[in-house]
Every structure is written in structure tokens, then in C-alpha cells.
Design a protein that fits this description.
Blueprint (H helix, E strand, L loop, with lengths): L1 H49 L5 H36 L20 H11 L1 H23 L3 E17 L2 E17 L6 H68 L5 H17 L3
Antiparallel strand pairs: 1-2
Helix pairs in contact: 1-2, 1-6, 3-5, 4-5, 5-6
Length: about 280
């Protein structure tokens, strides 16, 4: 049982390390795409400044945004390397080229009652506590048997042989005896230590029963939280996808407005930043 609990814990640790690698890599990739977009905006701002279409402030704002993203990209590289090293240390496998998480959040989860029934039934911690409860009950039975009445069947068998000679000649004697009895033992006093151990066993059995109930409640509480996380997470993903589409439409409109002079370079940079934030929300 302890092996299965340790195995399940290892699975969770590997899954967490896997997600950490994907999240750090996606963050770094998003910053790279954002740097490319801001770099193009910076080149365009310089060309338009040289042509006299925009003031110097447009170039300065684009340069400041580009430098800030470069700094963020350098800062994001360290967590990506740390997450990859942690995954490799845990699994012995390279962290490069991991397959991303598929879009599996579109399906509705099973009802909460099904999750609760399966989690309580399959909880390894609860199964371990139930095993401890069974052992504690048997300990109580053992101590109770030591101080209970006992009825024993006692069987005896004997044989005596006597051979010898005397004044009256040779003599011999053979005697066989067999008996079966029932023996009832009534303990009047078993000692304070024995009764104290019995009381301790009873208390430990009560504790084991409470531990089983606590394990059941913990499994149900964690399952309920996980179920709510899945359902709420699916709704949040749909909302983030809509926000990303809106941010992309805003960026297109802002770029069009910049071309006709209705929007500034800063407006375009802000729209690009909003699109980056929307993409980051959808990262693993």
C-alpha cells in the first residue's frame, strides 16, 4: 500500500514538472513573438520618423518597449532552464521537445457524484487507514481473549509396567489409564499491565476509525475542489479564447488606424501587449 501511495505521489510530481516546463517554454516563446512584433514596429517607426510622418516620441516609445521585452525575455530564460533541469533530474529524460497539452477542456466533466464515488472508493490513503483500522480491531480482540474465560479439553494417557522376582517367584504388573476432562479457567485478576494494554488497544481502534472517516472527508473535499477547478477552468478557457480574439481584432484595427494617422505607435504597442497577455492566459 505504501508503494502505491509513493507511486501516485511520483506521478503527480512528474505531471507538475511537465506542466512547469511547458509553461516556462510557452512564456519564453510568447516573449520571443512579442519581441519580433515590437521590433517590426520599431523599424516602421524609424522609417516613418525619417519620412517625417511621426514625431521622435513614437520612435522613443517603441525603443523603450523593445528594450523592456528584451529584459523580460532574458529573465524568463532562467525559469525555463530551471524547470527543464528539474524535469530531467526527476525523470532522467530530456526536457526538450515535450509534446504540449492537447485541447481536452471542451468536454463536460462527469457529474460530481460520480467523481466523489470513484475518489472515495479508489483513495489509497483511505485504503491504508482502513487497513490500520482492521489491525487495531484485531489487537483489541487479542487483548480481550487474554482476559476471557477459557474452556480446555484435557486428555491424559498413561501406562505402567512392573516386572520382578521375589521369595514367591516371578511377578509382573501392567496398568493402563486414560482420562478426558473439560477444564474451565476463570481469571480473577490479570494484572494492571494487561488491562492497561487492552484499554490502549481500544483507544487506538477508536482513533483508527476516526482516521478512516477523516481520510474519506479529505478525499471528498479534494475531489470537490478538483471538480470545481475543471468546470471553472473550462469556462475560463472559453473566456480567454474570446479575449484573445478580441485583442487580435483590436490590434488589427489599431494598426489600420495608425496607417491613416488616427492611432499612434504607442496605441499599437499597447494593443500588442494586450494580445500577449491574452495569449499568456491560455498558456499551460
Amino acid at each position: 500500500m505504501r508503494y502505491r501511495v509513493a507511486e501516485q505521489t511520483l506521478i503527480l510530481r512528474v505531471a507538475q514538472a511537465y506542466v512547469d516546463v511547458l509553461a516556462a517554454g510557452e512564456r519564453l516563446a510568447l516573449l520571443g513573438r512579442q519581441k519580433s512584433a515590437v521590433g517590426r514596429a520599431l523599424d516602421e517607426a524609424r522609417e516613418r520618423f525619417d519620412a517625417g510622418d511621426i514625431p521622435k516620441t513614437g520612435v522613443t516609445e517603441a525603443q523603450a518597449r523593445f528594450d523592456a521585452i528584451v529584459a523580460e525575455e532574458l529573465a524568463a530564460a532562467d525559469p525555463q532552464r530551471i524547470a527543464g533541469a528539474a524535469f530531467t533530474d526527476l525523470t532522467g529524460l530530456p526536457a526538450e521537445g515535450l509534446r504540449p497539452v492537447g485541447p481536452a477542456l471542451g468536454m463536460a466533466p462527469a457529474p460530481l457524484e460520480d467523481w466523489l464515488a470513484r475518489s472515495v472508493q479508489g483513495s489509497l490513503v483511505r485504503a491504508q487507514q482502513r487497513l490500520g483500522e482492521e489491525i487495531a480491531r484485531r489487537e483489541v480482540d487479542k487483548h480481550r481473549a487474554l482476559s476471557a474465560l477459557t474452556l480446555d479439553l484435557v486428555a491424559r494417557a498413561g501406562e505402567e509396567r512392573l516386572n520382578g522376582s521375589g521369595d514367591f517367584g516371578q511377578s509382573s504388573l501392567n496398568a493402563n489409564s486414560r482420562s478426558f476432562t473439560l477444564q474451565l479457567t476463570v481469571p480473577l485478576f490479570t494484572g494492571g499491565m494487561r488491562s492497561a494494554r487492552r484499554d490502549e488497544a481500544v483507544a487506538l481502534a477508536d482513533k483508527a476509525r476516526f482516521d478512516v472517516e477523516a481520510a474519506r472527508q479529505l478525499a471528498a473535499r479534494e475531489t470537490r475542489a478538483a471538480w470545481l477547478g475543471v468546470t471553472t477552468g473550462a469556462a475560463r478557457v472559453r473566456a480567454f479564447e474570446q479575449a484573445r480574439r478580441s485583442a487580435a481584432s483590436r490590434l488589427d484595427a489599431t494598426q489600420t488606424g495608425q496607417e491613416v494617422g488616427a492611432r499612434t505607435t504607442l496605441d499599437v504597442l499597447n494593443a500588442q501587449a494586450d494580445l500577449l497577455a491574452a495569449n499568456a492566459q491560455l498558456a499551460p
